[in-house]
User: Fold these one by one.
Assistant:
Number 1:
Amino acid sequence: MSLILGILDSGAAAAAASSYESIATVTVGSGGTASITFSSIPATYTHLQIRGIARNSNASAGGLSINMQFNSDTGSNYSYHYLGTYQGEGTAAWAGGTANESFIVPFLMPTNSLGASIFSAGVIDILDYANTNKYKTIRGLGGYDMNGATTGYNYLNLNSGNWRSTSAITSIKLYGSTANFMQYSQFALYGIKGS
Amino acid sequence: MASTYEKIATTTLSSAAASIDFTSISGSYTDLVIIGSIKTATLTNPACYVRFNGDTGSNYSVTNLYGNGTTAGSTRFSTQTFIRYNYVTDPNTTNFAPVIMNINNYSNATTYKTALTKFGLASIGLDNTVGLWRSTSAITQVTFTLESATNFATGCTFTLYGIKAA
């Protein structure tokens, strides 16, 4: 196959031959799982990217956030902002932010209340993750459409997040705000090398 | 380590065409990324469509987030015969507009397929969309068209990439 050159956008990360590498993948089996953790992440890349699909087993109506923590830090050391559309039924964009949170929300996922077989899709970029001089910044793009289902469905988000730590990121935990990731949810971690 | 981000195919139009089509897409990747650059040969302001596997049924829907220079807003379309990935950013005959589409887990035979798309023109605005295809079939074909049988102009290009997870 040909080389991929150039700087692309979120979900289409920069890559040359072998500069975009698969590190690990988790596919949720029957019975689901409450969380997914990528651990022992090597510091040999410049950036990380997580790509995935997700659905939550909670039966309540609406979407649920996917929460993300680094290095098992459960303290109030995170913040995030979001710009998106909520329900998508009106004409307003949806924006906000949360400070001193114990997690970052990169994107959302549908619950198991309606729309069987519908999973959200998302791409998360974690920039300069191994740098020990910077707080860590992420951006997320994700969402799902439920074909016009009623209140509480259809999300699309562009999110940013910050972890106030200079530690290199060596583990990443993803979990729902309640219940489990359902079977067939999948997250894949990739490493992107610089020069 | 082997590359996990590979170019599958590129189409660059040497003459105007009504559609751009990727066929016989292998199921050996995890995700697809499509990067395009489009303008129209004639009609300005057409809607931009994508379909999968030649399905012309009412099996698509889309939620859109847009900005037009003064306002951010959203809209949505249910039970469509295509995913419309533009709302405020209509292509024209003058400037090429970039398209970036992510289709995660395109080849599984269990879930409906979701496509995330970014589209924009600096002179008009930008669109972000999440589109749903209500089919559990693996995606083997992706077809881009324009409203009212408008042609893509000469020089339009689309490249299809595959990302393979370990």
Number 2:
Amino acid sequence: MIFFRRQMPVLITLVTGLLFAGQYYVPHPASEQLLTTVTKWLQIVGGFALVLGVTSLFHLHAVKIHRREAGWGYSFVLYTGMLATIVLGLMAGGKESTDGSPTAFGWIYSYMLVPLQGTMFAILAFFIASAAYRSFRARSREAAVLLVAAVIVMLGRVPLGEYLIPISGDVSQWILNVLNASVRRAILIGVSLGAVALSFKIIFGVERSYLGGGKE
Amino acid sequence: MSFAERMLKIDRRIIFLVIGLCTLLPLLYPVGLPIRISPEVHGVYDYIDSMPEGSVFLLSLDFDPASKPELQPQAIALLRHAFKRNLRVVAMTLWVTGTGLADQILTQVAREAGKENGKDYVFLGWSPGGSAVIINMGQDLYGTFPSDYNGNATKDLIVLDGVQSLRDVTYAVSLAAGNPGVEAWYVFGKDKYKFELGGGCTGVMAPGLYPLLRSGQINGLIGGLRGASEYETLIGAKGRAVAGMDAQSATHVAIVVLVAICNIFYFSMRRTAKQQGHIGS
């Protein structure tokens, strides 16, 4: 049984990892067909992952409600909301509207989800302004550089800023295109090399934490 | 407590009020300041404008309602341009919570342009798998989306005539609010299936996509509401984005002024503290 729990997953990872790393470079129809099949599996697994996620969320909040833990009322609201949405969604066949008129599921989407998510995002502007006022100070040279760059980009990205300080647009473009792009690229290359190294560690069984038991 | 200290600890509700007014007043009384077009947005516009009639334009609306204010105007402007150029529009989303929104946007613009579903455009909807959906579409579009959002078999749709996979797409644009989005479309789509790719994203995400832009991995980038307003100006159909730019202008300037004030008080406090320390010693 230990073989199936420990060695087997590592073996599958090794074979599939090497196979699909190589597949990218082999344009033969058989290789392409293999990719088609496996990506279909991936989509199916993705569907199941969704079911697993929803089930796990239901379980977590059911326990909270059952034990009357702190904030169980919120869990109750979540539970009710999710159940109502799922039932109405199934009844509407997942459609927000039929023949131009909104379904109950579409009503929840358009008049609850859309404004709620929009509101959450809009509130950020107020908190960012308040946080900037309280903490965006030139305490050190590095902070001063950050502050100056942020002010130039903020002004250069809006018509009023460009109107008040005409050069801000060009300087802002230069900061984004040269300084920002080069630094981001450096970070990206570092992250990608890290990802390649981690992939090799997983493929060759050095990194096994995904099995759930750490490094043994 | 000194004046500077009191000002630094100002009630945050006053700041909220300033930002609220800076957002509201320009929306009620628009000024309409001129908008300069950036080369990034021109890149997307020029490519769509140069596509022959009947070319396949894929628009992936990879965002949810939280990013609607920034990305909906981008989507509307792009669709108006594509329909004006008589391109075949294939729309989809990789974000399940964006499905309804994407359908609403596409239906609204198509109705405006007098386009017919299934003949001039199609909304494929959402399919599970995230980035795997892109690979799957690259291998076999009909296998990934056997039916469109309205349940019609994709194989029977006139709009998809001659389209077997992503290899038959002329130009794709991903309007993204996160992952999967523009990067996923490049890594799993363009790189392997060789179609041209453009991007659109929220203002916060835009700086992160500049490396892709500079290296030519995407041929253009529409960043945030500003990008949307530039696109609206280019197609000569000023809409919500242009209207919103006055509000964004005022809010940005207000934040810059607030930051400047905060720093003036901070340095004044620091100088006072230094002077007091000097006298004390």
